[in-house]
């Protein structure tokens, strides 16, 4: 408290914590903002796809948020969106090429959905709503946690759909982590009749709907608790970020 | 007072607008040029690793199609370049790898393209024994819809194994299409275009090999 530099540091940490909470929970891009649903719904029929696309999206988000924040004082309002899109498209193409070179098999599996990251509104959304108004360090932290929040939803949804639709968990992990990961596959039930619906596109919508509902239920329970403790009415609007 | 302001409003903004537009155009072109420059650089840098990775996959795939104990020569060195846009659907020269055992021809391995898939070129590799029988077919690269058209991959479905041991003869022409078209191959639910394209490409490649015959081993 007596040291001012210490104060600045704790302020920064508080900021970062707030950003992290926003990215992972309060303003989760997939569950609250409902952005990037096209790739989210399309590839999450198993865990490994969720991890692959989640990490790629996170990488793009970090690069684009960092660059947009760097140049934020050097673009005029009229062209900022096209410039952001040029940056995002370049970042995605670079990551696409790098993955093709060094993660060749994974790149093959995810196919068209890597270049399609360009069209993920969450990325342009963060560039416009956050990186274009904030410092580089904050923008990078924001990108990391927003990306992580998005990736976690992909992974949870992918795992759920794989468990229900295939009766396994972590199947085909070797495609991403090499031959030794083959042993990771867990067969949950013997003689399981897979519920195909979970793997087909409707399963993606239903699964995402259930996840959103679960999040809202948790929020409401929290609010009810707060109300009991404080004795005042606390309302929660799950679709609005607290900022 | 207000009139004066109005007049000023109409004159000044026009000049300002021009300046703004020029500035915007300049900014946008600068960022685009930088972006293109970075892309060219990365493309240049990744060109070789991508080719190496593809070659490794190629070698692995060749050994899936043709067990390495069936031949004793160095496949990647024993090659011939052919150009047959009509059969192999590419104007670029195609490399044919020749497997031999004790100098005797065993099989040919070559890549072909299916240009009429659902989403871009499908790159296919096939191995054909000296007597015209298919040793195996694999899809090397494609951009078909995940979950629908991607069943041409062995990882997703056994469909591609349906080619094993088949031979192109005058009397089994009808076999070479999907069931929907009266042929002998399953189509996929929601994706008929993809298997149709693959079958056609394999058939054309076989016709090419039949056409050239023993010349390909020379």
List the helices and strands and how they pair.
The complex is a heterodimer of chains A (243) and B (218).
Chain A: H1 4-26, H2 37-43, H3 47-70, H4 80-102, H5 104-110, H6 121-131, H7 136-166, E1 168-169, H8 174-177, E2 186-187, H9 196-199, H10 201-230
Chain B: H1 2-65, E1 79-82, H2 85-88, E2 94-101, E3 104-114, E4 122-129, E5 134-141, H3 193-212
Antiparallel strand pairs in B: 1-2, 2-3, 3-4, 4-5
For this structure, the quaternary state is heterodimer
Supply the number of structural domains of chain B. 2
| Rounded average pLDDT of chain A | 84
The total beta strand count of chain A reads: 2
Shape of chain B: elongated
Helix content of chain A: 55-70%
Q: State Rg of chain B.
A: 27 Å
Task: Please tally the helical runs of chain B, counting DSSP H or I stretches of 4 or more residues.
Answer: 3
Give the SSE string of chain A.
HHHHHHHEHEHH
Helix tally of chain A equals 10
Residues in helix, % of chain B:
40-55%
The whole-angstrom Rg of chain A is: 20 Å
Please name the defining characteristics of this protein:
heterodimer, A: 243 residues, mainly alpha, 10 helices, globular, B: 218 residues, alpha+beta, 2 domains, 5-stranded antiparallel sheet, 3 helices, elongated
Descriptive notes:
The complex is a heterodimer of chains A (243) and B (218). In chain A, strands 1-2 form a two-stranded antiparallel sheet. Chain A is 67% helix and 2% strand. Chain A has one domain (4-230). Chain A is built from ten helices and two strands; from the N terminus they run H-H-H-H-H-H-H-E-H-E-H-H. Chain B is an alpha+beta fold. Chain B folds into two domains: 1-53; 66-217, no CATH class. Chain B contains three helices and five strands. The chains are: A mainly alpha (243), B alpha+beta (218).
């Amino acid at each position: 408290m007596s040291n001012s530099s210490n104060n600045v540091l704790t302020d920064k940490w508080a900021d970062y914590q707030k950003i992290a909470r926003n990215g992972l929970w309060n303003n989760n891009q997939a569950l609250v903002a409902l952005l990037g649903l096209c790739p989210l719904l399309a590839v999450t029929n198993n865990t490994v796809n969720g991890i692959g696309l989640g990490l790629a999206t996170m990488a793009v988000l970090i690069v684009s948020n960092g660059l947009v924040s760097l140049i934020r004082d050097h673009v005029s309002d009229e062209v900022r969106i096209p410039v952001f899109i040029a940056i995002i498209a370049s970042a995605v193409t670079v990551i696409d090429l790098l993955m093709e070179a060094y993660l060749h098999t994974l790149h093959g599996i995810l196919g068209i959905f890597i270049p399609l990251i360009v069209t993920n509104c969450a990325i342009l959304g963060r560039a416009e709503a956050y990186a274009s108004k904030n410092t580089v360090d904050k923008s990078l932290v924001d990108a990391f946690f927003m990306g992580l929040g998005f990736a976690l939803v992909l992974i949870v949804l992918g795992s759920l759909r794989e468990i229900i639709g295939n009766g396994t968990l972590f199947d085909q992990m070797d495609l991403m982590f090499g031959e030794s990961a083959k042993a990771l596959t867990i067969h949950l039930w013997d003689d399981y009749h897979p519920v195909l619906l979970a793997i087909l596109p409707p399963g993606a919508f239903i699964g995402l709907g259930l996840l959103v509902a679960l999040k809202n239920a948790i929020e409401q329970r929290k609010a009810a608790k707060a109300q009991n403790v404080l004795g005042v009415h606390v309302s929660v609007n799950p679709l609005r970020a607290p900022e | 007072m207000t009139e004066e302001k109005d007049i000023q409003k109409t004159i000044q903004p026009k000049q300002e607008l021009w300046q703004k537009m020029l500035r915007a155009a300049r900014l946008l072109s600068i960022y685009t040029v930088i972006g293109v420059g970075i892309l060219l650089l990365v493309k240049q840098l990744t060109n070789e690793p991508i080719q190496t990775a593809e070659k490794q996959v190629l070698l692995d795939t060749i050994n899936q199609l043709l067990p390495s104990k069936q031949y004793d020569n160095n496949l990647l060195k024993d090659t011939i370049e052919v150009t047959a846009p009509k059969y192999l659907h590419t104007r670029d020269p195609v490399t044919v790898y020749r497997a031999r055992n004790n100098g005797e021809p065993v099989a040919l391995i070559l890549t072909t393209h299916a240009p009429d898939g659902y989403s871009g070129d499908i790159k296919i590799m096939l191995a054909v024994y000296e007597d015209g029988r298919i040793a195996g077919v694999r899809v090397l690269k494609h951009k078909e819809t995940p979950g629908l058209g991607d069943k041409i991959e062995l990882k997703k479905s056994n469909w591609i194994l349906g080619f094993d041991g088949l031979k192109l003869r005058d009397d089994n022409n009808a076999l070479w299409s999907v069931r929907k078209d009266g042929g002998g191959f399953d189509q996929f639910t929601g994706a008929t275009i993809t298997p149709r394209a693959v079958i056609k490409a394999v058939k054309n490649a076989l016709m090419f090999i039949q056409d050239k015959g023993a010349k390909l081993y020379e």
